[in-house]
Amino acid sequence: MAKQIQSFGMTQMTIGACSNFHTTAVKYINEATPAALHIDDKAPAYTDVASLLASIVNRKRAFVSTPQMREADKLRDNATGTISLVINAYTHSAVDECRTAAQLLYQQMSPYRGIGNHEYNKETAEIRGMLAMLAEPENAAAVTTLGLTKEVEALREANATFEEAFDARNDEVSAMVSQKSISSADAVAEANRLYQEIAQTVNAYAIVQPTEELNAFIDKMNGLVGSLASVSGSTNGSEGPDVPEPEPTENEEL
Description:
- The protein is an all-alpha fold.
- 71% of the residues lie in helices and 0% in strands.
- It has ten helices and no strands.
- The longest helix has 32 residues, at 149-180.
C-alpha cells in the first residue's frame, strides 16, 4: 500500500503551534528538495507564508530603544538642571567676573526654565536651541568662566544619544505598524491551504510514482503530524486561545 501523509485537525492548533508546524514542514521540504517532491511550483510561496507566520508569532511587544531613550533623557535632564542651578547661583556671586557672566546667561536661559518637565519632542528642540545659544562666542566665554564647559558638552552628547535612540524607536514603530497590518488569521489560512495542496501532490505521486525520497518525506511528515496531533489532542479544551500581550502604541510616552 502506498504511503500517504496523514491529515489532522490543523485548525485546532494555536498560532504558535501552527507556525512551528509549517516552519518544520518547510525544513523537511528543503531537505528532500522540492524537485524530488514534485512541488517546485508550490514550495516558494509556502516558504514565504511560513516565514510570514513566524514573524507574526515573534513580533515585538516592546521597543528595544526604550531603555536607551530613558537613560539619555535622564542624563540631559541632569545636565540642564545643573547648568541652570550654577548660573542662578552665580548671579549673586561676590566675584565680579563670575557675577557678570552669570547675569549674561541668566536672561538668555529664561526660555528654557523647567525644560526637564517638557515632553520629549519639545525638550529635544529646546535643548538644541539652548546649546546653540551657549555656543555663541560671548556666551561660550561666560560658560568657561563659570566652569560649565564640561557640563555643556555632556548635555550635547546626551542629547545626541537621545536623538539616535529616538530615530531607532521611529524605525521600530514603522516596522511594528507594518507587521500589525498583517492579519494573522489570513496568514494561517494561507499557510494551511498551501500545505494541503503540497500534501495532496505528494500523496498523489506516492501512489503513481513512489520513490525513496517521497516515502522518506512522508514518514517525516507523519512523525510531525503525529506529534502535533498528540499535543493538540491533550490540550484541546483545556486551554483558551492565544491572547497576545498588549502592544505599545505609536504615541506611547516612554
